[in-house]
Every structure is written in C-alpha cells, then in structure tokens.
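Q: What would this chain look like folded?
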Amino acid sequence: MSVDTELIEAAAQAVARGRFESMSAWVHEALRSKIEQDRRLEALAAFIAAYEGEHGEITPEEMRLAARRARSGAVPVRNSRVAKKKGARRRGRTG
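A: My prediction, written as structure tokens:
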C-alpha cells in the first residue's frame, strides 16, 4: 500500500499540533469519516430514488429553484463574499 506524500504530511502536522495522538489515530479517523460519508451518500441516493419513483424525476429547473430558495434563506457568515461586501460598504468602500 502507498499513500500520497501530501496526506502523510497533513497527518504528521495534525499529530504535531496535538489534534491526534498518532498517525494511526489520524488514519483511523479518516477511514471512519469516509465510511460515514459513504453511508450518508448511499442513504441520500436511496431517498432520491424512492422520491423519484413516487413523484417522477427531479428536473434541472426544480433543482435551480430549490437552490435559489435555499440561498435566499441563508445567513451570511464570516469570510463569505456577502459578508465581506457588507463590511466594505459599512467602512465606506465598494467592491
């Protein structure tokens, strides 16, 4: 088995910063997270298949409308483009 150098370096840095006790602990957490993500994606795929089986295929237009609705109700957080623009306006700058 081989692992990319970038991943080894990221793990070593996480251990050095005290986020993990060892490289093994970092690998364990990475694998656990991947398994959980895969399970969630499988559950989502099953939900979508069941929904579409009952209601028909979700169209690109329906997805665009849902994304627009979600964005309209979103709350900007630090480091977002919207929050940066609002902050610049408050300080008398535009952009």
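The chain has two domains: 1-58, 59-95.
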